[in-house]
Design a protein that fits this description.
The protein is of the alpha/beta class. It has helices at residues 21-35, 38-49, 56-66, 75-93, 101-108, 122-132, 149-160, 175-183, 200-206, 215-221; strands spanning 8-11, 113-121, 142-145, 168-172, 187-191, 210-212. It folds into two domains: 3-19 and 98-221, HAD superfamily/HAD-like (Rossmann fold); 21-93. Helix 1 (21-35) packs antiparallel against helix 4, helix 5 (101-108) runs parallel beside helix 10 and helix 8 packs parallel to helix 9 (200-206). The radius of gyration is 18 Å and the shape is globular.
Length: 230
């Protein structure tokens, strides 16, 4: 199906719209090292790389547990880690690369219902997109943490009245994104340029899901169609 034919288009944020994966990974690793050790930082890197779309709240809880306190009882410390993570990342997120293909795709599908589905914090993502001037591209809004991606996907499908899932397309950069789309029988396009997930491409090839370098690549191939489950 051609890109223009999809009525509901769901974008991941980190690694798809924004080159933000490395920013967040380094910040999580820095936090883990600050409360634990360099070994803990490497553990966090492995967990994030292999995770199924963990939210920052889940990752910070893991970092807190890896700390020398080995306890979740100190809530102020947990909240402090959340604040420190936001402070470490936000200024960089304001200036990191944004895939210009997003504008090309909007021009090609102006009437489609666009939504962001992210494991990142919803409020922060809304603020970030507002400051970067792209929030108006997404008529369906932004769905993010602390609610899980799966629960938010169900909310999106309900809100959009998506009666035909074959008119829905998800674009993501991870194995968990591809797996989620496959579970719901939704067409999927892997965006690999800024991806940190080594298993994603193998999964997409196995399940005949489309693979693109970036959103510019998607826009240039949009009339050719995507691999479909239908």
């Amino acid at each position: 199906m051609a890109f223009q034919a999809y009525k509901l288009i769901i974008f991941d944020s980190d690694g798809v719209i924004l080159n933000s994966n490395t920013i967040k990974l380094r910040s999580f690793m820095a936090l883990a090292a600050s409360v634990g050790s360099s070994e803990d930082a490497e553990k966090i890197s492995t967990i994030i790389t292999n995770s199924k779309a963990l939210t920052r709240y889940e990752i910070i809880a893991i970092i807190h547990n890896l700390s020398t306190q080995k306890s979740y009882s100190n809530k102020s410390c947990y909240n402090d880690l959340l604040d420190r993570f936001s402070n470490l990342t936000y200024s960089s997120l304001l200036t990191c690369d944004l895939d210009a293909g997003i504008y090309m795709l909007k021009h090609q599908s102006p009437s489609s219902y666009w939504v962001v589905l992210t494991a990142g914090d919803q409020q922060e993502t809304e603020n970030l997109y507002r400051e970067r001037g792209i929030i108006n591209l997404f008529s369906g809004g932004i769905y993010g943490a602390p609610i899980s991606k799966q629960t938010n996907l169900e909310r999106i499908l309900e809100a959009s009245n998506a009666r035909n899932l074959h008119e829905t397309l998800m674009l993501g950069d991870s194995y968990s994104d591809a797996e989620l789309a496959f579970a719901y029988n939704i067409d999927f396009a892997l965006i690999r340029h800024w991806s940190h997930c080594s298993k994603a491409e193998e999964f997409c090839k196995q399940h005949l899901q489309s693979i693109f370098r970036d959103l510019v690549d998607v826009s240039e191939a949009s009339s050719d169609g995507f691999q479909s489950f239908g």
